[in-house]
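Quick start: read one record
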Amino acid sequence: MTRTFDHLVAEAESVSVDGWDFSWLDGRATEQRPSWGYQKLLGERLSRVSSVLDVQTGGGEVLAGAGALPPLTVATESWPPNVAKATRLLHPLGAVVVADSDEPPLPFADEAFELVGSRHPVTVWWDEIARVLTPGGTYFSQQVGPASVFELVEYFLGPQPEEVRRDRHPDDAVAAARKAGLEIVDLRSERLRTEFNDIGAVIYFLRKVIWMVPGFTVGHHRDRLRELHERIEREGPFVAHTARFLVEARKKG
């Protein structure tokens, strides 16, 4: 039975968006994954170090699923619901979760970690990453690239200026890393297909990834949501494209 707009809206508004687990979208949205497999590659690197810092860990799901953790494993997170979730998930694995404001400085001593990881950081403080890495240490991160899911962003916000569309470009990450004294050892980027099968999936996504449409609420955007619901019912899934890049940078020994 086809669910009504009001039913889909109520369902998507009521579900928790804590953590960084998107399993609620199973069957409702699909996202093509980058070919490199960040979590697996992170696990390989974890096995070769004795200390790691996971920055902006979310609910800790990626780090927890990457494999055996080094003796010293620390994760930072700023959003209180995620801090609590990451603590419950990572503490039994031997990791410490630190509530951090995501503003410099990182609350750690110089040269404290052999590896710093981060999946989809909102901001990257390259000088701080370089400071807390040991000589020869590595920063390993999968990041959101420019104009990611902008078909959806611009549906609600209208056409965005070129400087906004170019934000988070991997070339800028490379320049910032080098300025902080890090050497780029790997850089890959891909553009990937994403489909939203119903308006509930759109609402859940925008509630969870809050920087996509700043200030998004169902009440404020209800008319556009209804129009999009009718479009999906008429034409099929709403298609957008995510941008992802993988960057690995090393501190000189």
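The chain is about 35% helix and 25% strand.
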